[in-house]
Amino acid sequence: APKADPLDLAGIDDLLSPEEKAVRAAVRQVCDSAIDPYVADWFESGDLPVIRELTKELGSLGLLGMHLEGYGCAGMSAVDYGLACLELEASDSGIRSLVSVQGSLAMYAIWRHGSEEQKQEWLPRMASGDAIGCFGLTEPDHGSDPGSMRTRARRDGGDWVLDGTKLWITNGSVAEVAVVWAQTDEGVRGFVVPTATPGFAAHTIKHKMSLRASVTSELVLDSVRLPESAVLPEVRGLGGPLSCLNEARYGILWGAMGAARSAFRSALAYAGERSQFGRPIGGFQLTQAKLAQMAVELTNGTLLALHLGRRKDAVGLRPEQVSLGKLNNVTKALEICRTSRTILGANGISLEYPVIRHMNNLESVLTYEGTPEMHTLVIGQALTGQAAFR
Ligand code: TGC
Ligand code: FAD
């Protein structure tokens, strides 16, 4: 049998078509040239200064809303989209977040639930990266339980008026458009809010120790008046935002394996180069046990991602299947990063290596898009028929 790539010991690559490998290579190329040389600096400065240029570059490659059909979107498969997320997150979770929020949350909400007019107005500009979108569901007092949200939209004549606060919103202060979910007399509804609308304000959140190469914001809606045409017409209830979360969580379950691969690659190289007690640390059984365990989890998580991707393309996914992937892959990716960090010793805490950056980023990825506890309860409900959320 041929010798395997240490980063793909099981030979999962053989399960990909030449076209899928080409998509992956194209994404890797842009990551190598436009992201990897700079991302540690962005992380260190806690900023993404090139967000507009980068978003346009990602758009020109067809990576924004890449799994959506029409309106300037690339119409690629779920597996293609997953492979792109993996490569982007191998560079940095913050960059994959930019793409997730744009394509799977903001664009998907409009694509799936929007009017023809909303789609024509926003999707082509968002696909090209000329307009950045954000997705406001979480509030200061309602994270895991978005159904209790306090942001409210009331009808006033022919208009809607929105009041409330959203917190932890990726891309909030750089977005041209915000998809905002609000409580109404008809249940939760979604609104397409141009961020230049009077009464809308966004403030960047500082002092994050995670996802630093990503803009995270508070949105304040103070009597934001919108025409009737701003409401997403096709959906009422919490199922609206949750349908978008399924899409983003799917991308994350692939992406996390990218962060893990990057950390593992660093640890494997370091184990070969670093000597203590007169031999490479990779020669010690304790180091080998760590490397072997990481290779097993990287293989398992990547196989699970590919399986869920093939299934999504063939028949679609149930929410609990997405939860299974998000829970397992992000948890295991974080473990891989932490173990890799130990192999690098003191260098493991330095931004000279990507490991602690990925590790810290994954703390956000673990919490956003449903905490491990929420996904455990979703799986528990699917297994038992009993909802244990409240
Ligand atoms: P529950 O009563 O179970 O459901 C309410 C309605 O929604 C339907 N539903 C779903 N529909 C589509 N997809 C899903 N995954 C769905 N889950 C439930 C359900 O059938 C019901 O429909 P109907 O017609 O009967 O009304 O709702 P609940 O209030 O008990 O909550 C369930 C729970 C806890 C699982 C849910 O609220 C949840 O997932 N909480 C976590 C919140 C979360 O993940 N927030 C993420 C915010 S966005 C973000 O983090 C972006 S990060 C940036 C990046 O991605 O990079
Ligand atoms: P809480 O819900 O307060 O949870 C705190 C703890 O209590 C968690 O461990 C949780 O699992 C546990 N817990 C809660 N309920 C239960 C229960 N029933 N049983 C057991 N344990 C429970 N949101 C958006 O809408 N849009 C975005 O773009 C976005 N981007 C984000 C970017 C970053 C960097 C971060 C960190 C978050 C972002 N979020 C975004 C918010 C994210 O989705 C929420 O942080 C997440 O849903 C958890 O909500 P919370 O932080 O309020 O925690």
Description:
GO terms for molecular function: fatty-acyl-CoA binding; flavin adenine dinucleotide binding; glutaryl-CoA dehydrogenase activity. Residues 237-383 form the Acyl-CoA dehydrogenase/oxidase C-terminal domain. Belongs to the acyl-CoA dehydrogenase family. Its cofactor is FAD. Residues 17-130 form the Acyl-CoA dehydrogenase/oxidase N-terminal domain. The model has no long low-confidence stretch (mean pLDDT 98). It contains eleven helices and nine strands. The longest helix has 35 residues, at 239-273. By secondary structure, the protein is α+β, with helices and mostly antiparallel strands. The strands form three sheets. It has a four-stranded antiparallel sheet, covered by helices on one side. Strands 1-4-5 form a three-stranded mixed sheet. Strands 8-9 form a two-stranded antiparallel sheet. The chain starts with 17 loop residues before the first helix and ends in a 6-residue tail after the last helix. Helix 5 (93-113) runs antiparallel to helix 6, helix 8 (285-314) runs antiparallel to helix 9 and helix 9 packs across helix 11. Helix content is 51%, strand content 15%. Bound molecules: 3-thiaglutaryl-CoA and flavin-adenine dinucleotide.
